[in-house]
Amino acid sequence: MQNKFLTMMGFAQKSGNLMSGENTLELYIPKKKISLVIIAEDASENTKSRFVQLSTRFQVPYIIWGSRESLSHAIGKYNRAVYGISNKKFSRELRKIYEEMTNSPD
Q: 28-53: b or e for each residue (b if 16 or more CB lie within 10 Å)?
């Protein structure tokens, strides 16, 4: 299931529907260009709280999941902690996969 999530992120990157990096997301979340925020579990507490607050304030769903390394590798970039999905269909699919991962009895 984790591979499915990471593969979907890779597809989003290749199709131009994924943005990454703190500065980029701080610009696009308030403009309502992001439909899902993904925060790496090993991001700093400051980064996590800043993006949870920003997402909540602008009513953008967010997920805290995965490591910087695995998420960055999935999109072919280095050391990113925060990701934004701009396409609603990709967002729905990633949320669905995330729900399946977190609700599975494994």
A: bbeeeebbbbbbbeebeeeebebbee
